[in-house]
Request: fold
Amino acid sequence: MDNWVPAGLPAAGVDSPSLLSSLIRHPLYLLAILCLMQILCWTVMPALVNVSPPNDVVEGFMWGREWVLLTYKHPQLPAWLLETSHLLTGSFRWPQYFVAQLMISATFVLVYLLARDLIGQKRALAAVLLMPSLYFFGWPTPQFNHDYAQMPFWAAICWLLWRAGRGSGPGWWLALGLVSGLGLYAKFSTALLLLFGAIWLLSDPRARSRLATPWPWLGLVVFVAVAAPLAVELTRADFLPLTYAAWRDQWVLAHRSRFYYIGVQMAGLCGFVLVLAISGLLRRSAAPQEPVGRGILVYLLWMGLGPALLVMVASLFTGAGEAWGAPMYNLAGVVALALLGHRLGTVEMQKLAICAFACIIGISGAYAGIRWTKCNLRGRMDAVCWPARQISDEAEAVWHAAAPGRLDIVGGHTLIALLAGLNAYDKPSIFTDLNMRYAPWITKERLRDHGMLLVWPGRDVPPYLQAWLGSVPVKTVLFDWSLRAAPVAVSFAAIPPGAPQLPNAIDSLARTSN
Reply:
């Protein structure tokens, strides 16, 4: 039987270098294979070993079922995507990893489209092949949250802004306004990129000249229309997400070195630099220069490195979460190829392709091996080790044995309560930190009419739950979670509707929440 190759490619036999060379000459085929490999490896490997989703994912699933615009932390586009994935598949085991990799692969494609416009098709492919060597496109991605939901929006904004600023047509301005507005629903820090984009727009003569046409202003109208509901809800929530961000910054400053954030970013770039060296792009070359235009280089450095460098400097004074820079390295490969692309030949492209696939397969395999070993052989209780399904089953059993009606609310120790509600058939709401400001879907009337299941780790009742319990019996269950470590204890207490201690506990809670 003849050896199969993609349509339009010359027959390459089984000679891997020849096949690779053929794929390199047809970038879209190689880009598609790269995306498919990213999706396959980083969906299957975490799904095989993670018994429970990571903390942010569990929280996203539980918040997603409320369909609110924002919570006290962030806007809720990632939670909507998680809830949609569950509604479509009925699973909490693998769709979150699939959604995460769809976002990463969309980022690959959008970066390719931008790079193709700026530095040509060959260098654009090379830039994307560098991306799997960046830490932020591999190991952390199973924890799908707002940092990773931003990635395609940042890439899309950079591409659309360039096209619009170069006069490619009115549709680009309208698309830019739409995507910019939607990006805020992924995370408010998208506004940082929009600020950099606005400064470039005003400083670049050619882009600035477009402001004399109606299209940028129509794009602005689209942006305002899309973002307005989020702004209204932010005001109604008394700007809690901004308060949370400030609190998080202070926590980082108090618990981390001032150079912690910068250190994490530098560590995350080590693989990128290593692949540049392996590929030969860092070697001296006597090849004739093919310089990138000054305007292109300024745009890439400003949009591709500007936000990351600004946050690094700011982290010395304000603190920053280590993953907050995740979308800020989308254009690292494009910047590298804009500066080093004159050294790019067939051999270098082949090495980049081999390194890209080695990073995807090797790092995802290492992730699976290390996660499984930590849970089962080292007995280290990471978030992904908790037996989420069993905890949810027991939560429902305790509730239905003690109270009529469906399990409507879970609370207590928030991380454990999230697990108790995740797989529950009744789809209860989470009462985050027993604070109505943090969980506005919980009201005093709902608590009185439906009661609540309290959940916490260990046997002893935490002081902050004692007022809720009264004389309610507590059931403690041991759950197996590791091949080596002892079972973990989780306690449950069903507070039925109309329980005598509810009015006083609710009144005390209302005073605390206000």
Summary: Residues 1-14 have pLDDT under 50 and may be disordered.
